[in-house]
Amino acid sequence: MKKHLFIFGTRPEAIKLAPLIRFCRSRPEHFEVKVCVTAQHREMLDDVLEFFAIKTDFDLNLMRSNQTLFDITIHALSGLQEVLKSYQPDNIVVQGDTTTSFVGALAGFYTRTKISHIEAGLRSGDKSSPYPEEINRILTGHLTDYHFAPTDLALQNLYREGIRNNAWVVGNTVIDALMDGLSIIDREHDKFFVKHFDFFDSRRKTILITCHRRESFGKPIESIFAAIRQLAAKYSELQFVYPVHLNPNVQEPAVRILGQCDNIHLVRPLSYAQLIWIMSRSDFILTDSGGIQEEAPSLGKPVLVMRDVTERREGIEAGTARLVGTDQAVIVREAVRLIEDRNAYQQMAQAVNPYGDGKSCERIAAIWRQRL
């Protein structure tokens, strides 16, 4: 039986690795699993661990106020050196494109440990957007031994970079997480929601907003918020729900531009459970998030992506998402189209999700058993 060490540090990583950890831990005859968190993010990470009942074995507890990419890289690498010396895993598992993912892969390379990369092969083609994620995912890919790509397009990206061995299309584990999460919510609905959404009116159409990417700070995010304000004024019967990121570069313009609109609800960042609950009850979503581009189609929710580029081209090509950038006029035009044109809405809502069927963990585990 091989020893698998899962290394992650942020909420998105935790969401996408949680179903795989649960799947493997439910089969102790085949997998020995340990979990190491860097806690690059602390509170949001802990929320996901609690929701999915994930026990951690090593906690580097790195999060500090005003930490830089230098700080995270240095302290994570140093901390992982001790963890790897202590546990000596056969397989290090990292996910996605965070600094923790890159450093986890680098630590594995330094100790000659096999490395598995979940959600391998995503590329935007622009090393500065998303920043620093695009470079993180490229560097992680070239350190990795086992590449688990979510889609055919991601696999082709790996091939173009000369990565052809031990690479498979398995779907995206975020869909496994979504299905697990919704089943937990169904069992424990009141625990998660009664006190958190007292403003929510289920009779009104709802537009969910998530916006926090650092490349949008400044003029782009102000343009996004101006578009949302314009839509809220035009459609007073709609309700807009925006969980506002705690970063001051998001908080200040959000409150200044959107704070006086009666039908825009600016709320604190939501837990993962709360987010998928409100997502399931929204009509469509305005977002710059990567995960939501993958999750929303499984719920039949059209997505307008408020970025200039996206590494998740599959959703654009499948018709589940539309890239609208940060220009106020374009965002308003495309949102109006979804609000007023029922055929256009249905065309996006009924498109097939290209990101998976909820069986990615099963496929990954089967490959590990065969190859390791």
Describe it:
The protein is an alpha/beta fold and 372 residues long. The chain folds into 2 domains: 2-172 and 357-371, Glycogen Phosphorylase B (Rossmann fold, 3-Layer(aba) Sandwich); 191-349, Glycogen Phosphorylase B (Rossmann fold, 3-Layer(aba) Sandwich). It has helices at residues 11-25, 43-51, 69-87, 99-110, 133-143, 152-160, 173-187, 189-193, 219-234, 248-258, 272-280, 290-295, 313-318, 328-340, 342-349, 360-371; strands at 2-8, 31-37, 58-59, 91-95, 114-118, 146-149, 167-169, 206-210, 239-243, 264-267, 284-287, 303-305, 321-323. The strands form 2 sheets. Strands 3-2-1-4-5-6-7 form a 7-stranded parallel β-sheet, sandwiched between helices. A 6-stranded parallel β-sheet has the order 10-9-8-11-12-13. β1 (2-8), α1 (11-25) and β2 (31-37) form a beta-alpha-beta unit. α4 (99-110) packs parallel to α5.
Summary of the model, kept short:
The protein has 372 residues and is of the alpha/beta class. It has helices spanning 11-25, 43-51, 69-87, 99-110, 133-143, 152-160, 173-187, 189-193, 219-234, 248-258, 272-280, 290-295, 313-318, 328-340, 342-349, 360-371, and strands at 2-8, 31-37, 58-59, 91-95, 114-118, 146-149, 167-169, 206-210, 239-243, 264-267, 284-287, 303-305, 321-323.
Percent range of helical residues = 40-55%
Q: How big a fraction of the residues is strand?
A: 15-25%
Can you identify the CATH superfamily of the largest domain?
A: Glycogen Phosphorylase B
Mean pLDDT: 93
| Overall number of strands | 13
CA-CA gap between termini: 9 Å
Just give the CATH class of the largest domain: Alpha Beta
CATH architectural grouping of the largest domain: 3-Layer(aba) Sandwich
Overall shape: globular
Question: Structural class, from helix and strand content?
Answer: alpha/beta
Structural domains: how many:
2
Summarize the biggest pleated sheet: 7 strands, parallel
Strand order of the largest sheet: 3-2-1-4-5-6-7
Low-confidence stretches: none
Order of helices and strands: EHEHEHEHEHEHEHHEHEHEHEHEHEHHH
The CATH topology of the largest domain comes to Rossmann fold
Please state the CA-atom Rg, rounded to the nearest Å.
Answer: 20 Å
Output the number of helix runs. 16
